[in-house]
Fold Stage II sporulation protein P.
Amino acid sequence: MKNKKIICLLSMILIAMSLQLSYGDDWYHDYGDYYKVFNVKNGDKLFDTAREVTKGDQYLSEDNKMYKVVRVNETSKTAYAEFIEDVTLPEINEVAYEEIVFALRNNIGLENLVANEEDRKVGIYCSHSAESYVPTDGTESEEGGGGILKVAESLQKGFQNNGVKAIFDNTNHVPHDAGAYKRSRRTAVQLMRDNGLNTLVDVHRDAVPAEAYLADINGEPASKVRLVVGRRNQNFKANEEMAWKVKSVADKMYPGLIKDIFYAGGGYNQDLTPKAMLLEMGTYEHTRERAEKSSQYISEAIATALFGGTFKDNQEGDTEQAKPQQESNAGSGTGIAALLAVIGGGGILFLFLSSGGKEWKSKISNFKDEFKSFLGRRKK
């Protein structure tokens, strides 16, 4: 009987540990193993992604049609989505937009056109810092720091050229696993605290075939950009609104630059601020130079959308400054609840094994009476 007790306790501990260790915003598969998402009505392919796809995820296409994932086959890595609605993006103030574009294109910069310099700050980091571009970097992943860091540096320069103070933290967050976002969360919090900023950009690249991201913009080879909005975070609506604004400006400024917006099931540390975004800068099968070129374009679009007073109701001022939360996993409440459930279930199993089938019901009944008594004392 003593051995049974020990085995039961060890099982409870292992289950609890697995719950904590397996928590993560994403779990990427082997290269070449990605999800294909189809229109449930006609079978046409909507998009590919190396991110995990779950039922309830949403997708805004390049032509602003919203879809919702209704069925997922994890074995075949296929999913099906149904059309929801046509989306109207935030309306641009044409006068303000033309002034901003003139300033940016003539090297005047936002600093000479827009006030509130203290708000024109962006923090940049890479949760998956090993990501690389095979044709340029010779590998899809480099543990010591991949080509994605070069793309992030290019994005930083683009912001700075447009009058936005950009701080890039190149901290390495390897390995590329389910814990990467927990490690990069510390970096994001540090960026906010040390620099007094509330705009964060997490730079990634996808892991699907190159043709999904190839683009030609202004006659030059570039990559398309996907915006990823995490559905599991308290700032979802604000993050979505910001993504819509960026797409609205980019569609006008550089048509074809924004590939789409994927509403994935994770949080991606976007609960830290209403002004958080995740960029997929192309994919691993095309050159890094394409992504670096697009980083210049997207930095201009983001600067215009967030700091240029570009929208008719001046919506960019509607979001109050966010305060970074503590360095903890987003969604940890759910994990704790699950952990308590497992411990409770394990406790029942332990009672059964330790006392035999005839006595365990009696022990549970006594426990319930004690618990009710405890709650009664707490209410007084």
